[in-house]
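We emphasize that the prediction below concerns an isolated chain of 125 residues; any contacts that depend on oligomerization or on bound cofactors are therefore not represented. The input was used exactly as deposited, without trimming of termini.
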Amino acid sequence: MNEGRYGYWCECWTESLTEQRPPALVASFDAYSAPQADRWVAVALQTISPALDSDASTEAWEWMYDGRIDTRRALLRAEPCTVSLTHAGTRITWTIRPVLFLPLAHHQGAELPACAHDFSCRSGE
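Result of the prediction step, given as a token string:
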């Protein structure tokens, strides 16, 4: 069986600061290098920055110019990172966590565990 591959699991969450709702997962991304992971956040920030209020836009650009290098260094040390900003009562948070991506087991030519036969597709799905 193939070995796992180290990488980073990236997520973007939004949370209302004015309403009682749980945070919502907006996007996720599997990155295989620290540069790829922090680039995912940078592209998102560059994309939304024109729509942000001035304080949030300033936070975004400060991270891209100053904070991004600290994020990259932390990722290279296998430390999780968070980038957050607040816009119009909404907190937007990107998280990047070091992970080990495990290969999926190929089901052809292998004996499946007994529990695999307990589930079947319903007709019409």
